[in-house]
Amino acid sequence: MSADSDAPGALVSAFKKRLQDGQRASGEQFLAAGDALHLLHERCHTIDAVLCELWHGLHLPPTLALLAVGGYGRGELYPASDIDLLVLLPEQADDALSTKLERLVCLLWDIGLDTGHSVRTIEQCLEQAAGNITVRTAMIEARLLTGSAPLFADFSLRLSRDMNAADFFQNKRIEQEDRHQRFADTPYSLEANCKEGPGGLRDLQAILWITQAAGYGRCWKDLAQRGFITPDEEKLLEDSEAFLRGLRTRLHLLAGRREDRLLFEYQTALAEQLGFKATNTRRASEQLMQLYYRRAKTVLQINAILLQNIGAALVPPRQEPPQPINERFQNAHELLDVVHEEVFSDAPQAILEAFLLLQQHAGLHGMTARAQRALWRARTLIDEDFRQQPANRTHFLELFTYGHRLTQTLRRMNQLGVLGRYLPNFGRVVGQMQHDLFHVYTVDQHILQVIRRLRRFTMEEFAHEYPLCSRLISDFGNPWVLYIAALFHDIAKGRGGDHSELGEADARQFCSLHGLAEEEGELVVWLVGQHLLMSRTAQKQDISDPAVISRFAAIIGDERRLVALYLLTVADIRGTSPKVWNAWKGQLLEQLFSASRRHLLSSEAPPMAEGVIVQRQQEARRLMRLFALPETIHERLWEQVDTVYFLRQSAEEIAWHARVLYDQRHADKPLVKARLSPLGGGLEVMVYTHDQRDLFVRLVGFFSRAAYSIADAKIHTTRDGYALDTFVLLDVGDRGSNRAMISYIEHELLERLSGSAPADIPGGGRVSRQVRHFPLQPQVTIQPLVSLEPDETGKLFVLTVVAADRPGLLFLIATQLAAHGANLHTAKIATLGERVEDTFLISGSHLEDSAGRVKLEADLLKELQI
Predict the structure, then answer these.
(1) Residues in the chain, pLDDT under 70
(2) 279 and 147, same structural domain?
(3) Least packed by Cβ within 10 Å: which of 262, 368, 629, 719?
(4) What is the required cofactor set for this protein (predicted)?
(5) In this structure, is the dihedral angle defined by the CA atoms of residues 522, 525, 527 and 529, taken in order, positive or negative?
(6) 304 and 333 assigned to the same domain
(7) Which pLDDT does position 693 carry in this prediction?
(8) Which of 559, 574, 561 is CA-nearest to residue 528?
């Protein structure tokens, strides 16, 4: 190939085939032997050879140099990574040289190399490096491929002379902090990024870039020899790097492209390649991700220790003698330090004491690298004998009773492996993923999130976020009992069986061993066993029904338990996923709490249905008087509704209906009214029209097309044949324009109901990747309702549907109900992330026969399959 003619197509094809064959061979060899580093080196060697041949074939001047930079310069080229090149010039290129370099770049693309390239003189390189930390980092790893060795040597020397190691360290540290923030400062993402995420490969590379810039070494062995890390830490780093390197290599090969996220669609295949097998309680992918999270945790821990040590070496702190705290610990530059490195070996009880001191001394803002390393090594001293020591049990309990900085303390204990050693059952859930379609954290991180939420209730600066919770916890007394309950509420996840029951047994043993007073211990155990009771009642049952409140209050027993369960429930839901909590759920829980509290504190016998109806009617009249309306506006409507209407509607809704309908009782046209939900968040829509077949299906279709989900539906048919339906709608798209949508819904829905057009069919949509790859087996149950109204018992049925969420799901359910002649009375729609748990109160002559119920269940299950 000459510089004066284009490369023949055959030559380009030959180079392309050579690269493809090399990539294929190295990939097959890796999958057979599992040596990722060998693959990365082989890929570099193959591309090195091709680049050198192209360079020489173009007869480029010998005064130039072709450099590999970045990961390619380091000699680690992943299967789908960019090939970063730097063409180094002795002086600015003339037109002839520019033409040849452009031809080189075109050839690289022609033969299939995805390159990132720059063409610069040494002065331009130094100028770019001075203003861009990423460019400077890439140049640190520059490697000469071909061309002028003297020019490359001059470049390396001047780059080294221009390096300010302390500034580089600070910039890389800030860069790492910014990168971690992009990933919410946690490696525990459902689809973790094994390169850029916290605890990923980039955290290891950042350390080596810093030490290389400072002249401390290029590998872990160099750092061990200089005393920055111990031999054990060197081994841990090498093993973690090898694991992450192999995982990223497999991910590139599986995806066939540059992909560093452990996406759902690859997790199972990766797990199987690495030899994980599914068990009765855990998927292979969950086992892989747990291993990944634990490796990432190790990387984060050693990364933090190394950054402290390297920073102290580059920028020595001011010379100040440490301030003694006691015979084992001291304050060194506002960091907790050990007086010598064998403190924990000499006195293992000091392990928990260290964390307690961090809580108790406001002037301490963390731990020295020496203290962290000593604790990391000492974690293995926590054995059964350690757990049985009364002093250690006292120290552990004091962490919770003291409370200050509790979340930070527990996170640090978890990071250092101390928490899982002291509580082995907690250690089992560290890094354990929950593919239940609504938890977005691993079990251990969820537990710590719940404790964090409880702690926020106690802080004045967050009182505006949770006013009721803040008031309740301030009067609760011993809120640390709630923290202990939160610690155990999900600790039995993944064992098989009911995690509430298993966790209850763990909590009982803990409370007994740690000497909790009988009353406090019983409360902790009860909370762990019943921690799902309140959310299930609020989201699945009709909490306006006195029978529901009565049954719930009977389980609760007293006000202290009610307050404790309410606080734990709010924290639990808030700590599950940002998507799960909304104002509607908050109001449901608050309504259930208030109604149950009144029931428990009432000195009289709880009112039966008749008493509740009288109370609601009186309150509704009072509310109507506020609008200066005639005293009798409600009479005609109330004559046409039955007792069930008053039991299922709140007094405020009853008054709203009467105000709107008092002069439109027998309107020929449908009536649609919408307003901002009084419960906070979303819209409330009332529909009043002649009852008609498939009405609910038509309403569901319309709301779905308008991008609203139904959170609650109360369906009532008056004695004179009118449908009086009320819906609470939540904006699926979170558009923040509920007020602007009121007139749209009133006008457009009225048009739909006034005409004879068929029901709106919700537009198709894609299910989430999580649902596709971790499908939830749908569940459908139909059971008779036990009602306060004796004539309803045996006629009303509770339909419960649990399924993966997807576009148009409620429309499918509504269509099946209509097809089976089922009348809908109420609907409670609970969406938990990508999972729905919906409850419907239905009736119908077909349902009174068991065969009819079985047929409806079977048809629903068929429709719900994805």
Answers:
(1) 1-9, 435-439, 603-610, 665-667, 680, 733-736, 756-759, 762-775, 786-794, 832-833, 866
(2) no
(3) 719
(4) Mg(2+)
(5) negative
(6) no
(7) 77
(8) 561
Distance of CA 167 to the CA centre of its chain: 35
Nearest to 499 by CA among 489, 509, 507: 489
Residue 404: phi, psi to the nearest 5? Answer: -60, 130
Q: Taking the CB of residue 284, how many other CB atoms lie within 10 A of it?
A: 20
Alpha carbon dihedral 836, 562, 483, 326, in 10-degree steps, equals 170
Residue 14 lies in a domain: yes
Q: Name the token pair of 31.
A: 């999958």
pTM above 0.85, yes or no: no
For 441, the domain range is 423-576
Q: Collect all residues with Cβ–Cβ distance below 8 Å to 329 and sequence separation of at least 6.
A: 336, 337, 338, 339, 343, 350, 353, 354, 357
Task: Tell me whether residue 742 is in a domain.
Answer: no
Distance of CA 3 to the CA centre of its chain: 56
Q: What does DSSP say about strands 335-338 and 329-332: parallel, antiparallel, or unpaired?
A: antiparallel
Residues 308 and 331 in one domain: no
Residue whose structure tokens are 């979340």: 407
Q: Which helix (H) or strand (E) element contains residue 645?
A: helix 643-648
CA proximity to 288, closest of 397, 185, 442: 442
Q: How far apart are CA 146 and CA 12, in angstroms?
A: 20
What pLDDT is recorded for position 408? Answer: 92
Is the same domain home to 169 and 311? yes
Letter for the amino acid at 801?
V
- Going by C-beta distance under 8 Å and a sequence separation of 6 or more, which residues neighbour residue 472? 457, 563, 566, 567
| pLDDT of the residue at 682 | 82
pLDDT the model gives residue 605: 52
8 Å CB contact between 12 and 109: no
Q: Do residues 415 and 367 lie in contact, with contact meaning Cβ atoms separated by under 8 Å?
A: no
pLDDT at residue 435, as a whole number? 65
Contact 261, 248 (CB under 8 A): no
688 lies in some domain:
no
Q: What is the pLDDT of residues 602-613, one digit of tens each?
A: 855 555 666 778
